Amino acid sequence: HLEESGGGLVQAGGSLRLSCAASGGTISYYHMGWFRQAPGNERDFVAAITWGGDTTFYANSVKGRFTISRDNAKNTVYLQMNSLKPEDTAVYYCEGLGVWGQGTQVTVSS
User: Fold this and answer.
1) Number of helices and strands (H, E) in the chain?
2) Phi-psi region of 23 (alpha: psi -120 to 50; beta: other; left: phi over 0)
3) CB–CB of 100/2 below 8 Å?
4) Which helix (H) or strand (E) holds 11?
5) Are 76 and 43 in contact (CB under 8 A)?
6) What percentage of the chain reaches a pLDDT higher than 70?
């Protein structure tokens, strides 16, 4: 089970830190990812991190602004989002080994 938290309403230029906590099992050996879905759009890739945390991947639209990280001891993956833009508004989901969380809403006002 994955549970996202940390979403909310923020002004453009602001920051948020999303968390994805796993329960019922360890995420230590799995690559993990963040995705987002805006109303009327498909779910898009945002960022991913390998199981050891040594390699990360980002969508071009968030590169340089978002940072994915993980703490395997806490069974948690994070997404630090800086310099937020209105177009970042979406429901953000974490995913690992085909398991999805319920999502957390991020709204960026202009």
Assistant:
1) 0, 11
2) beta
3) yes
4) strand 8-11
5) no
6) 100
Dig out the tokens for 23 from the structure: 């329960």
- Going by the DSSP 8-state scheme, the letter that residue 79 receives in this structure is E
How distant, in Å, are the alpha carbons of 30, 39, 78, 94 from that of 48? Answer: 11, 22, 10, 9
| Residue keyed to tokens 């009327």 | 40
64: how many CB neighbours lie within 10 A of its CB?
Answer: 9
> How does pLDDT run across 52-77, given as a tens digit for each residue?
989 999 999 999 999 999 999 999 99
Q: Helix or strand or coil: residue 60? A: coil
* One-letter identity of residue 68: I
The angle at the Cα of 46, spanning 23 to 59, to the nearest 5 degrees, equals 150
